[in-house]
Amino acid sequence: MKVKKIPLRTCVVTHEKLPKKELLRIVRTPDGMVEADLTGKKNGRGAYIKNDVETLEKARKTKVLERHLEVSIEDNVYDAIKEVIINNK
């Protein structure tokens, strides 16, 4: 029987290669909004981060998500993503 390939993605904060299911996709939609993408299929520019609060706080401090998504991100967006991470655990 064929072994199913597990898709790997790289966390933009920690630079770890992890299975796609262990990461959270953050997407900048075509209208410029930044939000968490739980389906992994939303239209727009995406970046993957590890699905924990510490990684999100590190991304907020270093502004790595802002560089990858090429947009400035407000604090309320980070708070909304933090709620998604907490509720998704």
Would you kindly provide a brief summary of this structure?
The protein has one domain (8-88): 2-Layer Sandwich (Hypothetical Cytosolic Protein, Chain: A), CATH 3.30.1230.10. By secondary structure, the chain is an alpha+beta fold. The longest helix is centred in the last third of the chain and has 14 residues, at 75-88.
Q: Your description of this structure?
A:
With 89 residues, this protein is of the alpha+beta class. It has one domain (8-88): YlxR-like (Hypothetical Cytosolic Protein, Chain: A). Helix content is 34%, strand content 25%. It has 3 helices and 5 strands, in the order E-E-E-E-E-H-H-H. Helix 1 runs antiparallel to helix 3.
